[in-house]
Amino acid sequence: MKFKTVKEGEQAVVYNHLGEGALVIGPQRIFLFRKRLHQLERYTADATQYIVMKDKDGVVKHKQGPCEVFFNPLILDSIKIESALKLDANHMVVVYKRLKDSNVQRRVIQGPVVFVPGAEEWMHVFSWHGSDPNNQGRMIPAHNKFTQLTVIPDQFYYNVRDVRTNDDTMITVKLMLFYSIVDVVKMLDTTHDPIADLINAVCADVIAFVGKLSYGAFLEKSCILNDLGTYSQLISRSERIGFNIGKVVYRGYHSSEQLQAMQNNAIESRTQMRLEAEVEDQKQKLSHFKLSKEQARLNNKHRMHEMKQKHQQEMQELKQTHHLELEQLKHSQTLQINSQMTQADLDHKSSANDQKLQFLNQLQSLGVNLDQYLVSQQKPPIREEIHVIKT
């Protein structure tokens, strides 16, 4: 016999001696006589969670948060808290729901959304081929399992092995496929593993392409594997399953070790010859450069010599011209001086004659006989003695 208190916000189950239970919601003050009080555990879920409740009769219920539930063992068999599914804008999930007529309804949930599934709903689990973590170009069946489907463009690597040319050479073709999902409903209706379908289709296209060529022709035409038109079966199959192939990138090939060694030796030889040819070409270019520079230097030297000679000739011509001009100037000055001296002499003589004439005129005016005067002014003639030599 005792009293028990159930506080506000709490719940409890009171069992009597017969095992019968009764729910008590606080706040209450309970007197216990031949009874036992069991405090109920409280479960809370926030806005990104929900509570899964399973009744005694097997009915499962989901209650979306924020909420609280007390685990009442009188009606509940189990209770747990689950996180809601957070989808961003690039993901979606496929949800199935069982209807009352035993049929199943399918719907696609596109993000962004916080999704809480109903009690009678379950999500589709995708099981696709996935990349081998130890070998990038190998795909493992059912390796990639997920519930959130990515709807943005994606890609994967794949090596098409054991491809035989028409001259019986075995090679491995390395590819990279870029794809995107166009129609999710068509994909769900037509395939359970679209990656496997794409791999099978691209293998068929590569085998058909390589099988018509020899090993040498394949090396020459391998760049065509980058052309999307080469993969007709891949394009057709991707359209039927709701996919779109953006492009296919050819990443090279691999052959047997012996053939690869021969190919590596041939590549090494070609590379060595190409390097030698480039070195020889550089030598020839250097020699040609030296010759051109030497020729340019000789041309400059010859041009400078011609310019020097031309300058000397022009200087000589200028000297001669200057000498002639000086001679002409000197001759002109001499002629001018002589002319001036002659003119001065003539002027002097004319002045003397004028004075003499004036003097004679004065003498005449004085009555002097000019003839006698003039005769007297003449010097007597010199007589020459002639000696006769007698023989």
Description:
It is elongated, with a radius of gyration of 65 Å. The mean pLDDT is 88. A hairpin with a 5-residue loop joins β19 and β20. Among the domains are: 84-124, no CATH class; 133-255, Tetrahydropterin Synthase, Chain A (2-Layer Sandwich), CATH 3.30.479.30. The strands form eight sheets. Strands 12, 13, 15 and 18 form a four-stranded antiparallel sheet that branches. A three-stranded antiparallel sheet has the order 3-2-5, with no helix packed on it. Strands 8-7-10 form a three-stranded antiparallel sheet, with no helix packed on it. The chain has six helices and 21 strands. With 391 residues, the chain is an alpha+beta fold.
Write the layout of secondary structure elements.
Elements: E1 2-6, E2 11-16, E3 21-25, E4 28-32, E5 35-39, E6 42-45, E7 49-55, E8 60-64, E9 67-70, E10 76-83, E11 85-87, E12 91-98, E13 104-110, E14 113-115, E15 121-123, E16 126-132, E17 135-146, E18 149-150, E19 154-164, E20 170-181, H1 184-190, H2 194-210, H3 215-221, H4 232-240, E21 243-255, H5 257-365, H6 370-377
Q: What gross morphology would you assign?
A: elongated
Largest sheet properties: 4 strands, antiparallel
Order of helices and strands: EEEEEEEEEEEEEEEEEEEEHHHHEHH
CATH class of the domain at 133-255: Alpha Beta
Strand content: 25-35%
Give the termini distance in whole angstroms: 220 Å
Summing up helix and strand content along with how strands pair, one would put the structural category as alpha+beta
CATH architecture of the domain at 133-255: 2-Layer Sandwich
Total DSSP helices: 6
Tell me the Rg in angstroms: 65 Å
DSSP summary, beta strand count? 21
In the CATH hierarchy, the third-tier topology of the domain at 133-255 is known as Tetrahydropterin Synthase, Chain A
Helical residue percent band: 40-55%
CATH superfamily of the domain at 133-255: Band 7 domain
Mean pLDDT value: 88
Low-confidence segments: none
